[in-house]
TrEMBL record:
Protein name from the UniProt record: Glutamate synthase domain-containing protein 2
Domain Glutamate synthase: 276-407
Secretion signal, residue range per the UniProt entry: none
Organism per entry: Desulfacinum infernum DSM 9756
GO biological process, one term: glutamate biosynthetic process
Length: 521
């Protein structure tokens, strides 16, 4: 069987005329005269534009490849005996009593009210448009929000002198949106790639904007190249070419300009450069960031080959990184090459199992093991439990990229509709939000008159996290684990032999054998 679905996808707005051949994805009978609704046919007209999910700037995309083993191949173990973390008393060990808070940072001083954070909300249009909703949602939920790469470089109003950014209204907007609602839990992380480092973004955000958590980026689970966006105008393409980005096709060429004006080219692509990891260079950059004033330094790495994961974990250990985010294949993106998203890298479960083995080896040597976060295609409370258990005791948080943005966008959409309805009826938006959102009353009680200032998307994201919290509390109570730190690998079971083999988690029919023998004699 094929795990992939080549040549047609909702992500590229393509389909096939008849049932396709499973390997090539081409229609079993390719008809001369067909207009070509498949990716091959659309590529005959639009060429390289068809590499990416569409429509750009309005969607996020997630891979649709099935992998031999994913989190559904594990189930959560419940028990009817005892309680860990509270008294084994039915009046005490209730599911609302479960503590879902967590800590990251080398010294555990970054506290989160819930063990999740956003993916990198970077320089794509959809990230820029939805930033305030997500930043405020993170602040009021007590979790982390990540300002992704290229924000300063993509800011049309950025002031750049001698190749260094001295002012970026867009980055200032991003940071201030979070800080206005920050309540002591969670935080804002700013991320940098090659171009950001050249532009002096770390110095700018740390020294001038007071950002405390800075993230180095090696990659992400959705692609193994630098970040990219689409540019709709020649002027914008020329501006970013001047700022040092790779822009394709080259907007300085007369032939390209002529093709754009004629309509043959409808957009340009801005690409970031590939980062080149070097052990000594990594340690020096971490130390430099700390000297600049970063209180915490984190690392984000993608689904590269196993030896690169070993590098990430070992280097992070030596540098005493405050958080290592490991992003598996099969995750999501604002814009990544579609086939790359589906066909490269190590899927999340496999990557986490490798990471666990490597962390165990370091711990056996007495080495520092950084707090780890797992990302890549996760969205609901059972995913959180399983990912934390599979990597216990090292996994402290889960990155929910597309899921967080989905909640924010849906909240924003319904908030806009409700605001229009209230305006027509001559009633307040606050009144509408109280009737729209299940968490409205508790946020009103908490924020008083400021409740009306919370963006609807932020309320949607808070509501989603609130649902995750109760769902996770219920699962943890069923496993009789009343704080996150008590979840361990014994709390899940493998449903297939293959899942057991790659993870070291017992196969369901082999689980608890010793205890069973003791009971049955």
């Amino acid at each position: 069987m094929s795990y992939s679905r080549p040549n047609r996808s909702a992500a590229t707005l393509t389909t096939t005329r008849v049932e396709p051949a499973p390997i090539s994805g081409i229609c079993v009978t390719c008809l001369d005269g067909c207009e070509g609704p498949c990716e091959i046919g659309r590529s005959a007209l639009k060429g390289r534009e068809m590499i990416y999910p569409q429509p750009f700037g309005k969607i996020t995309a997630g891979a649709d490849k099935d992998y031999p083993v994913d989190f559904s191949h594990f189930n959560i173990q419940g028990t009817c005996v005892g309680a860990v973390g509270v008294d084994a008393d039915p009046d005490v060990a209730t599911f609302p009593a479960v503590d879902c808070t967590t800590e990251v940072g080398a010294d555990g001083s970054i506290q989160l009210d819930f063990p999740v954070f956003t993916g990198a909300v970077g320089s794509t249009d959809i990230a820029r448009i939805n930033w305030e909703d997500m930043a405020v949602g993170a602040a009021i939920s007590g979790v982390l929000v990540v300002a992704g790469e290229n924000i300063c470089g993509m800011d049309p109003q950025a002031e750049i002198k001698n190749g260094r950014v001295v002012k970026s209204p867009e980055m200032e907007r991003r940071v201030s949106a979070f800080k206005r609602w920050y309540d002591g839990k969670g935080g804002i992380i700013v991320q940098a790639n090659v171009e950001d480092t050249k532009l002096g973004v770390p110095e700018y955000v740390i020294e001038k904007l007071g950002v405390e958590i800075f993230e180095l980026k090696w990659g992400q689970g959705a692609k193994d190249i630098g970040g990219e966006v689409k540019l709709p105008t020649l002027e914008r393409a020329l501006q970013l070419k001047e700022r040092g980005y790779i822009v394709l096709p080259d907007p300085t060429r007369p032939a390209v300009q002529k093709a754009f004006q004629a309509g043959g080219i409808s957009e340009f692509e801005r690409h970031s450069r590939l980062g080149m990891v070097d052990e000594e260079g990594f340690y020096k950059e971490v130390e430099r960031l700390r000297k600049v004033g970063a209180k915490y330094v984190t690392l984000k790495t993608g689904a590269y080959r196993p030896v690169d994961l070993a590098r990430a974990i070992k280097y992070s250990s030596e540098a005493k990184i405050d958080l290592l985010t490991i992003d598996g294949a099969g995750g999501g993106t604002g814009m990544s090459p579609w086939r790359m998203m589906n066909e490269w890298g190590i899927p999340t479960v496999y990557l986490e199992c490798l990471a666990y083995e490597m962390c165990e080896r370091l711990r056996a040597k007495g080495a520092y093991v950084p707090p780890i976060a797992i990302a890549g295609g996760l969205s609901l409370e059972d995913h959180l439990f399983k990912a934390i258990a599979l990597g216990a005791p090292y996994v402290k948080a889960i990155c929910l990229g597309r899921a967080m943005m989905t909640a924010a966008m849906v909240g924003k959409t319904h908030g806009k509709l409700m605001a229009e309805k209230m305006q027509q009826q001559g009633r307040s938006v606050e009144e509408g939000y109280l009737s729209l959102f299940a968490v409205g009353a508790q946020l009103k009680e908490r924020y008083g008159d400021d409740f009306a200032k919370i963006p609807a998307g932020a309320i949607g994201m808070y509501s989603y996290i609130d649902r995750l919290r109760q769902g996770l509390q219920q699962l943890m109570a069923g496993a009789r684990k009343f704080a996150l730190k008590y979840i361990d690998r014994n709390d899940i079971v493998a449903l297939t032999r293959e899942a057991a083999e790659i993870s070291g988690i017992p196969y369901v029919m082999d689980c608890d054998r010793e205890e069973i023998e003791k009971i049955l004699g």
